[in-house]
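User: Quick sanity check before I run a bigger batch. Here is a single chain. Can you write out its predicted 3D structure?
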Amino acid sequence: MKYVFRLGGASGFAAAAGASHLAGHAADRVFLDGAVGCLCGAILFRWFWNTVLRGVRETILQRHAAATAAQAAQPKPK
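Assistant: Done. Predicted structure follows.
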């Protein structure tokens, strides 16, 4: 989770600071935009990561339930 949060922050900072620099803003404004981009990127990546984990968890639970049901439906040898 920390890795995803840091990756989102770094990419958000780089994207926002780069866009601000290319727009010709002063250095203090570039760092302010980068800081806001860092926060937004980290929050978005964290949300996306939680969504991915929820999907994986649901898939695993569904597969386990299907396997359990299939095993229970098989006749037991006498």
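The chain has a mean pLDDT of 93.

User: Great, the batch can go ahead then.
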